[in-house]
Amino acid sequence: MFSFHHVFDHPMARGFPNRFSTQYRCYSVSMLAGPNDRSDVEKGGKIIMPPSALDQLSRLNITYPMLFKLTNKNSDRMTHCGVLEFVADEGICYLPHWMMQNLLLEEGGLVQVESVHLMVATYSKFQPQSPDFLDITNPKAVLENALRNFACLTTGDVIAINYNEKIYELRVMETKPDKAVSIIECDMNVDFDAPLGYKEPERRAQNNDEPTEEDGDPSSYADMDTGFRAFTGSGNRLDGKTKGIEPSPAPLAPSDIKRGIPNYDFKVGRITFIRNSRPQPKKNVEDDDAMNRFIAFSGQGQSLRKKGRKP
Fold first, then answer.
1. Contacts of 256 (CB under 8 A, 6+ apart)
2. 182-195 residue pLDDT tens
3. Would you call 174 helix, strand, or coil by DSSP?
4. Which of 62, 191, 200, 224 can pair with 125 through a Cys bridge, CB separation 3.0 to 4.6 Å?
5. 183, 78 Cβ separation under 8 angstroms
């Protein structure tokens, strides 16, 4: 009889032989010794690990790109990251400050580092943590440029990006097809939620008040004429006398100016052209009778040749 005992005893069947898992004491990048400025680590989602980790990963034949799951067992918080370099001291790894905040880690705290394989991202949604993010002209382009320094995204993380010497924090609200995805060489759709603390601008209600008494009666409106008025100046006599000179009329007061009659039949999208029409002159009855009595070619003519005279 065939026995299954040796099948489950095979070393390949015990767990995952290509899995990297160890613990490090983590520090922020500012604690990294050396003359070089490593502020580039703070702008991304990658960590710095010791050289021994590279040797162990090489022996395990880890698939590339190298992605890791970071876990703080004391607070049960986890995130995912990539690796930038293997230059840290043994037993130590250096993390970006925003990553330590997500994991609730202090300087020198223990973090569990495990190698993982993540699915490629197809969609992600972010929520800015401040309305200042709306001041950016093209936020998607800024985010796309900043994510080049990241290897993966984890739902629930608050990542930090640097733009124009200012740090903007974004919460990862959703990722597809999984809660943790790889964003290396991927075509990912990006969406934004309303920033935290953002309020919609209040729209002022339009005042549809009825016309007051000062507006006057619409039925009594006349054409407005505030332009040139003829013969409104004052005259001067050549002999210097003031007799017969009438004073110029008083200027019009605003209350004397009347507006035109509004078109109460106005409809949106319709234009009506109103032309001034002059009344037709009244015709006299006698003129009408004369026109009715007129008969063409009914007059009498005169001849230049006298009657009775032969040529």
1. none
2. 999 888 999 999 88
3. strand
4. 191
5. no
